[in-house]
Amino acid sequence: MEGEKGNDLSKDTVSDKRQDSKPVILIAIPAGRRNGTRSCEGLIILHVILSSSLFCFVFLELERILAKFGQDAQKIEHSVLIGCSDQHEAWFALDLALGNSHSSGSLQKSEMESELQGAFIDLRKALFQLNEKDASLISTAQALLRWHDCHQFCGKSGQPTQKNVAGSKRVCASSKMIYYPQMSPVVITLVSDGTRCLLARQSSFPKGMYSALSGFCDVGETVEESVRREVAEEVGLELDSLQYSASQHWSFPNSSLMIACHAAVRPGQTEIQVNLQELETAEWFSLEEVAAALKKKGPPASQQDGAIPFWLPPKMAIAHHLIQEWVQKQSSSSNLA
Ligand SMILES: NC(=O)c1ccc[n+]([C@@H]2O[C@H](COP(=O)([O-])OP(=O)(O)OC[C@H]3O[C@@H](n4cnc5c(N)ncnc54)[C@H](O)[C@@H]3O)[C@@H](O)[C@H]2O)c1
Ligand SMILES: [Mg+2]
């Protein structure tokens, strides 16, 4: 647990970067207060519709804006390093901790929006509007800021922890413990029987939307063991084979590392037993049905009987990537046949 190399920028390095008017991305997390505990109700991004990209501030501009709203520029010390531009400019994220209209001392959302001619939007909505690079940056910012917000005290000594300048860790001076931001590993699996693929719904999903099977890895499990266990637990199927496809950092509801795999069952071993404690339903879908659903942009309109036709997760979700990969592979092999 000695001091780490890499992104633990020392104070002078980072402060140089800040003083060189490096851009800083403003992030705001509205903290709702429910039963006395602070709950981050979601990340609101200052999405200034100028060049339809994230609004980057240079350090001095940010100081001016904070001063205008009666905020101490020291607030900037709470920002965290989330990456750097192709020109090696350090990017930081800052939690504006926007209050509602009557809370004193915190930044007022509406005033901030008019000052910057922008609008705060919810993270999920913002991710639909951002390119892949900005989406990943914002997702990292939200996960890191939320992690710091929830690790203010040492689990061992109860004493306050201190963030290092880059925000890559928190340290307890009393217990000497070093805390690093965590991501929970989650496996997501598209099971195929050779001609169909298996998709499932949780009751929490938007109406009509189906996705690949997913589940958190248990402590001590390998990815392969998690994939086999989750598929067996959720739909009662035994996998014949599986192979890794891709991964994705995913912020909902917490910081997860999605590990996506394709998997196959043996021919004839396709009878599903849906675990109704975990899933609302699970079904086999044909290549034609899935290929048609991939063409739909977002949730379809409800039918006359009020039912919402089957649709798939959006492009920014790794489930979409898995499903698209399966359709391409099936289509090319059926063309070859
Ligand atoms: N990006 C995508 O394409 C995509 C698609 C589907 C699901 N997901 C995400 O995958 C995650 C897991 O999906 P799931 O709900 O099927 O998981 P799951 O099947 O493991 O069931 C969720 C339950 O796992 C338990 N759990 C175990 N470890 C946990 C941890 N570290 N954090 C939170 N809960 C933990 C909790 O009781 C939770 O209710 C969800 O966060 C979901 O948002 C992402
Ligand atoms: Mg699951």
Automatic annotation (TrEMBL):
Protein's recorded name: NAD(+) diphosphatase
Organism (species): Monodelphis domestica (Gray short-tailed opossum)
Nudix hydrolase domain span: 181-308
Enzyme type, top EC level: hydrolase
InterPro entries per UniProt: NADH_PPase-like_N, NudC-like_C, NUDIX_hydrolase-like_dom_sf, NUDIX_hydrolase_dom, Znr_NADH_PPase
Membrane-spanning ranges: 43-60
Cofactor(s) in the UniProt record: Mg(2+)
Aminoacyl-tRNA synthetase as UniProt keyword: no
